[in-house]
Amino acid sequence: GGHVFSAKAITLYNPIQGRPRFVSEWEGALSAPAWNRWAISLHGLFDRQPAELFMQREGDEVSGSLKMAKWNITPYLEQGVLPSFRWFPPEPLRLKLDGKIGTLETPNAQVDNINAHILWDAKRIYISPLSANLYSGSTSGSLNIENRLPLSVHVLQNAKGVQIRPLMQDLFHINTISGKGTADFDLMLTGETRDAWLKSLSGEVKLDINDGEWSGINLTRLRQMLQSSNKNDTDELKQAMPFSHFVLSAKLKNGVS
Questions:
Q1: CA-CA distances (angstroms) from residue 248 to 132, 207, 210, 254?
Q2: β-pair partners for 28
Q3: Helix (H) or strand (E) holding 227
Q4: Distance set, CA 13 to CA 22, 24, 42, 122, 200 (Å)
């Protein structure tokens, strides 16, 4: 039962920096036979890019889907992180959302073909599977965010065929290893900012890299220097060691491996 209403909404919010956010124009339909039983279907533009949204509520469960062609999150960031706010619905409300983003632009990288299944309640946000294309390869896994003070985050990801240097540079500010291969992450972090996340980082990283190089080290020259009496050629060590295959496993604790 109930009536179906046509709906249209236009939003525009400009932050202090002048970069537009939440620029949208939607139209669609709304059905609401009861306060806890409704459905809304919208299509249009979000931040000037095509988007579709469907949401419905049955009792304490809200489910739906979101599709976005492209989203640039840079205007939403404050000093490189999302602004702090409480993301969690009141009990006993539960949300289930399937999300697809064609292209996500960040300050450091472009991520394509994002697919995510999101479970969201008062205690946590659990995203699994979470997959995407990035750094010339692909990644899949899960993300779990616990509603604590500060936030507690658990990341499980397996990246395949990725360029290692930009990946490690963006995640850990490490740019000494290059090549292409796989990267497995099992990471725990807490905090509300990127700096806090890096300082609290713990877990394990496994790299399996092909046809790359390790800059800042020259093992052949180091061995020659150790075998000779000439110790003055230390500048020659500041080179790079090429390799055909390299495997690294590192334990992280409080941001230090």
A1: 23, 5, 12, 19
A2: 7, 42
A3: helix 219-227
A4: 6, 9, 19, 27, 34
